[in-house]
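User: Before I run my own analysis I want an independent prediction to cross-check against. Here's the chain; please return only the structure tokens and, at the end, one sentence I can use as a sanity check.
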Amino acid sequence: MNLKNTLFCLLVLLGWQSAIAQLAPKRTLEARRIQEKIELNAQLDEPAWQTAPVASNFLFAWPTPGRPSTQRTEVKILYDDAALYIGVHCFDGHPDSIFHRLSKRDELENSDQFAIILDTYHDGQNAVLFGVSPDNVQFDSKFSKANANPDNDNPDGEDPAWDAVWRSEAKITADGWVAEIAIPYSALRFPKKDVQEWGLNFSRVIKRRGENDSWNEIKPEISGSINQAGDLTGIRDIKAPLRLSATPFVATYANNVYHQPTTPSSGWAYPYSVGMDVKYGINEAFTLDATVIPDFGQVRTDNFVLNVSPFEVRFNENRPFFTEGTELFNKGGLFYSRRIGANARLLNATKISGRTSSGLGVGVFNAVERAEYDVYQDSEGQTHRELASPLTNSNIIVLDQNLKHNSSVTFINTNVLRSGSATDANVTGALFNLKNKAQSYALSGRFVQSTRRQPDASENGFSTSLDLTKTSGKLQWGATYVLESDRYNPNDLGFIFSPNENSGTGWINFNRYKPWWKLNNFWSSAWVYNSMLYRPAGAWTETSFGFNFGGNTRTFHNFGINANFSPWGENDYYEPRTENFTHYYHQPASGRISGWYNSDNRRKLIYNVNAGGRMSAEKGRYNNFIYTGLRYRASDRLTLSLGLGNERQRHSIGGLGDNLFSSALGYEDLPEQSIVLGRRNINEFNNDLGATYAFNNRMSIALFSRHYWSQVRYATFFNLQNDGSLRPSTYTGMDAGGNPLNDVSANYFNIDLVYSWRFAPGSDVVLVYKNFIGQEATGLECRRDYTYNLSHLPQYAGSNSLSIKVLYYLDYEKMQTLMRR
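Assistant: Structure tokens:
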């Protein structure tokens, strides 16, 4: 076969794959305008419900996509000048077998559920979800393709942290369960039009059957679901209300510290704070969110670790203001919200976001941190104040234009201004994501410029990438190219582990979406990766390849295996801990294999395991890990969980950087400008225990406790050579008394006990108890084993905190209605 015929056959094959992945026909439901009042009682007994058009004939979305659902579902939609009303009847032939559990809002588990998805701008890229369980536990989410991450099983960019204020009622009946939902227009954004055209879909989960249904068919071979919605028609002449609400709060604390190494070693403090969150609808599309003198003292404690890598640890964001409604600001991955308030008290933060009827998304974010000072006394008793963190203003501007076929182009700018002579920073990026009409191919890319300015100098860098992907069908593939300069640095407001990259990745996936053999579905992939440095140009760092395979069994057990190999090792320019990229350590060839398993999550007792290891071509060098978890649903209200994990590294090599001790034997004999690396063993345990109890669908208590212990023990030390090899070093890491100076261990223990009560819509009382222990040891003390450290936790430095926070939601429209009465 000649080249011409080969290309022709390839194009035919690709065209055929696109053809079988066409979107399903769109279903349409008409909403009916009403004049009568709807009482939410989960009875659907008003006359308007009897004559409204019905959405039915749901289809499997998983595990057998496209088949008719096993149980009948009927949904109707009404509306008036104030709200949208959804009435749903989830028929069930065995109502006594319906799975339902009380839980905290937004944290459904092992329960049937129903949800409505609304794409109010009908762009296939943004939507909101409102859902309930048979016990009327509410959950809601916002979707944005800007945050899509197919690799993380989030192709729609779902943000479950988004919260809205809306009402619902639900109850189990003799023939299934019924729910009534009222969504006020204040919870939605929609274009200013006489006639609204919204995307619409419904989903239903029948938990005991492991069945997920949808109204408009969702084909799994097409990436995403909000672009596969039906149409909602009939809504006319509605206006966005004045969306103005405030949530003032007061929080008070009783804090105690003990066994501190500094003075005072213990003591109590009783701080309090008063602040407010404000939400204002500037118009029908744009909303301003502001938090004034915020208090985040009750968020969950970070999972601290002992970090001996050359890279920064990235923590999850738990603060509500920074997890909700930030989809525009997250485009391009240039915003790491944990930078805000990390080193200083946050005075206020404001965000304005929305999307015009022409599809232009606009986002503006601003935050101000106060100046912080260290106060100390000199040897003469004089008090001094030293600036630790300057007054800082952080700002983000985003313009995101939707195009045809769920495509988009984006401009984003982040800017950090610090008072005085401190460093200022600016990052500007342009992004695009282009898709064909069939949604089968995507071409995306970005170019980002970073600038850091000091009074006497500035530093510029850039990052660019291009990605071509086959996004639909059983067979998918893609290729990515990334180029980053050595001076690219977005970390004043963003996050990057390491710049100076010139890399390419290619991958191919084969997925089976329908049952086969003993599996409901399976997925597989293979990839290859090659990386060099941008500077010095052409300096090779790594070539690796790997594969993944996983599936879901007919009995709803999940499993997966993955492997990656670096047959030529790696030239590691980061472990030497230098900033000029002139030295590297040559890591030997290695291979890693791991696997995971999750049991059927419909059962009372569920368990999981994730284990694997990496073998090195260097004798005696390896690492392995195992993490296991148990979750026991003791009742319809109480759930218990336990997690156990251990990771070990044997004979690994790590750079010391600036951690060379002049008191160590052999230090004085080191050659000038020596780069010292050490051979070490690392042992790490990470264990957690949790419990949740729901009193009802508005009141719950949750416990989370974690103990983390890590020990790093060095055996020998080496001087790094220019060719990446190692030679024995005179540096011993031991002082004259035999103390190991570079060895280190860490204990982190925390308890978070949270009682929450939603006593009114959007209003909460939160009572939190926290206990935290943080201890790092060096010398002979760090050589104690795990059992010793666990038993001596009460003797280490720690803190306790008991706090109560009351938030009350005030809505302008509701207050006006009450006043008119």
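Sanity check: The radius of gyration is 29 Å.
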